Structure formats: structure tokens, C-alpha cells
Amino acid sequence: MSTPSYRSLRVWQRNRDVFFKLWHTEVPGFFAEPVLILLAMGVGLGTYVVLGGSYLEFIAPGILAAYAMFSSASECTYGSFVRMKYQRTFDAIITTPVNMEDVVAGEIFWGATRSLLTTLAILIVIAAFGLVHSPWALLTIPLSVLAGLMFSSIALVVTSVAPTIYTFNYFFTLFITPMFFFSGVFFPLDAFSTTVQKLCWISPLTPVANLSRALVSGHPGDGAWWGLVIIIGLTAVFFPLALFMMRRRLLK
């Protein structure tokens, strides 16, 4: 197996160019669902939830983290599978000097970019709602890139073994959606039972949500930086695993 080269940026560039051609259909999605969730949960459910502060302020950073996960995971499952299986884009690319590892790395980098774009859009929205209280919140932008690399790598490992595109329904139902609800996005982890809390702490989204909340609230020293170790550690495991497993899939 080769290591990715600078040519992986060409794969990233190809996906970027396609995005720019379709931006008018893509951009509304950056805002619509996160805003609806923010209003429904923060304004609706928030009237029944008692916390030390505003419930809307509590969930805003969690939504920032969660949709960074959704965008990168979606791009590197459904998006990558379509390019691999139906459009045969990967087959066309590897007939050039770009190797298979470059293709996979380029897909991961593009997934991280989608995470970044989604975070920027939501950050603008929550700032407009007056929910950002510190310039530390700007660090959620590089955090979204790290989270995007992690979730894109995990997603491509799943893509490497998915027999059909419908397989991803199980991935999102059994893995992504539970993380959305049990990673501290909507409720503090200590609100759950001890058993559920243990499951919450092994969720890759939990450190991202904790870090996002610490940065947006302006209290980055509240013991959340340990999450960077988990994010970088998981990326270090799943990135090369994605390269290996996708190479095996593409050679079939």
C-alpha cells in the first residue's frame, strides 16, 4: 500500500469544483435543518427543560458539533459510494497518475471541508441569535476540520464494506443518530443513568460536543481539551484503516 501524495489535493479539487457548480442546491441545506432543530429544541423543548442557564445556549454548541459530524459522514458514505459505484469516478481517476490512496485521502479531506462549511454556516446562525459570547468560538472552525477528518475516516471504513447504498441507513440509524442524542448535544451527560453515561463517553461525538461548548461559552479551560487527544487518536487509527480497506474494495 502506498502513502497518499500531494495528488490527493486534486481529488479534493475535483469535489470542490463539483460543489461550486451545484452550490445553489447545497447551501440551503447548511442552514435549514440546523436552524429548525435549534428552534424546535431550543425554543420549544427548552421551555420545559431546567438548566443552570439558557437551554438554547446549551444546545447551540452541540448542534455545531453534531452537524459537523452529519455533513462529513454523509459525504463519505452516500457521496463516496455514488462516486465509487454508480458514477465510476474513482475508476476514472486511478487511470491517471493519481493512486488509490490519493483518491481515499482526497475524499477524507473533502469530507472535512464539508464539515468546515457546515460549521461556518451554523456559527453565523448562532451568532445572529446572540448565542456566541467569546472569540474563543472561532476555534470551533479548526475543531470542525479535525472532527471532519475523524468522521470522514470512520465513514469511509463503513463505505469500504457496504454492499449496497442502503447499508448506510443502518449506519446512520444505529451509529450516527444515537450519537446525536447521547453525546451531550441536548442534555448534560450526568442527566443519564450510569450505564448510559459509560456508553456516552465512548461516543466519538462526545469530545467534539464538549470542546465546542467550552469554546462557544468562552470557558475553554473547563477540562474539555482532553477531547483533542481522543479526536486525534481516533483519526490516527481510522485514517490509515480507511486507506487500507478502500484500497482492498477498489481492487475487487
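the 2nd protein, sequnce then structure:
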Amino acid sequence: MPRGKAAMDQAVAMKQDMDLSPYRVFDDKQWSRLRADTPMTLSASEVTQLQGLNDPMSMDQVEKIYLPLSRLLAFYAESTFGLHRATQKFLNAKGGKIPFIIGVAGSVSVGKSTTSRVLRELLARWPASPKVDLITTDGFLHPNSVLEQEGLMGKKGFPESFDRPRLLKFLSDIKAGKRYVKAPVYSHFYYDVMPGHTVTVDKPDILIVEGLNVLQTRELPKDGRAVPFVSDFFDFSVYIDADEQLLEDWYVERFMRLRETAFRDPSSYFHRYSRIDDAEALETALRIWREINLLNLRENILPTRPRADLILTKDRSHRIAKVALRKV
């Protein structure tokens, strides 16, 4: 086959794949135009306070990416609330407003926490001043004592390391409009669930649920039984994406920075890593990334990307370079 024809056939095949994609893809300039007249409600100092360690966030990114997303979520939330009201009217049932739940997924070190915090602040400043809460699924990890007993410490963050029934019960209670629903608290400093510590979520208008595996499914039972997934409770979901090599670089950079800060505290679970030399620390960070986090990404997290309503793809500078929105 002539080389020119092969290239042409490849181009046609790629175009067909794009046509069949369930997503509409935008670069940052195209997406930023969808902000319309959505006002900026965060100051530069507030944006700086919201960013995480080794996860920079700029006013430019908030304006170009997160303000259009806030506008989109306003449309989705209002439509969802309207659907709930219509359903209650059809059933002749009385009930309060059902919370709008947003899931935020992605790899370790990709910046889920910063994105979730920025979204929380923007959504809470909508004209209606909704009550917006944020929960991370880290609190629903099994305690270290259980993971050690089950031989799962090397798979912390994998689906099997979470107390899934407890997480599902929490989300079910939130969706049912129950008051004072408690969630466990996780400490990255102590690298464990904190016994006796909880955070209370009380009838939010919007709840953001951030976690590694929140879009993950599991094998369906052959008898057709209803098996709930965490994502069944979501009204909208976001996956934050980046190249594997970037994720590795960001993880290692954060690990090395923590050696100079939090790890120096003798109470820190990772204090021992502050007492080794740089070469050994680098080797340790790479080993943890490749044996645990990269494996979890490839086996459990990345396969859930196509289930998201929105995919935010980052470049090396943590800037969102591409936005993919699922076609309605």
C-alpha cells in the first residue's frame, strides 16, 4: 500500500474514532469562552490559600477553567432539583431538597484536593448561597490495624482497602436527606483513620466527594441483584487526568518536599524518611510510586476515566490544557 494512502486511511480512522467519542473536547481557550458573565468571586489571596502542596492554582486557571465549570454545574444542579420536584409531584410525595452530589476522581498527586476546594468555594458563592460540603473518601479507609491484619498495607488506596459498606451507607443517608450524617476522619500526618474523630454533614445543598476510586465499579452478580456503586449517588463526576510520567514526577517532588517539612516531626508516620539521605529518599519515593500508586492507577483508577461526565487534563505546569465534556 502506498505510504500516502496509509496515512490517509489512518487519518480517516482517527476522525471516525473522534466522531464516535462520547465527549466533546475543548482546549482551554475554547472552554474559557463558556464562562459567559459568571463573576469572579475569589480573590488572588483566597486562590493561593486553596492550592495544595506542589499543586499550584492561578487566578487565570480559575477564570478559564473553573468559572465555566461552575456555570455548567449551576445548570446541572437546577435541572436535577427540578427533576426531583417533578418526581415527588408524580408520586404525590412530600420531601425536602435532595442534595446534588459531585464526585471528583483521579490519581494520587494529580491535584484532586485543590480542584475540590476551589469548586467548593465557587459553588458556595452562587447567588443563592447554597450550603456546600466536601468529603474525602480517605476517611473510609480501613484502619491500619485492619489493613495489617488482612495483609493490605501494601494496597492502601486500592478498592479493597476501603470500608465500602460504610461509604455507601453514608452516601445513601445523604441522598435520603437525613440530618447530622457522620463521616470518619483520616490523617495524612498519622497515615491512619483517626479513632473517635468524625465530621458531620447536615443536609447540604451540594456535596463534593473526592477520592481515588469513587468512579470504580465491581464485578456484577450473575443473578441480576442490585449492587450499588459509589458513583450511583453522583449527579455529576469529574476525572482529573495527567500523563503517567507527570504524575510520578509530581509524587516524587511532593515526597521530597515533605521530607523537609511534615516528615521532620517525630510524630509523623513518615518521620523515618526525613533521616535518610536524598538518594535513598528518591529511591524510596520511586519504589512507593511504582509498586503501589502506579499499580493502583493502572488497575483501578485509569479504567474509570471513561465513566466521568467531565475530564480535566493537566500539562506539566499543572495547567488544565484540555477539557472533555460528555455529550448529553
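The chain is about 40% helix and 15% strand. The mean pLDDT is 92.
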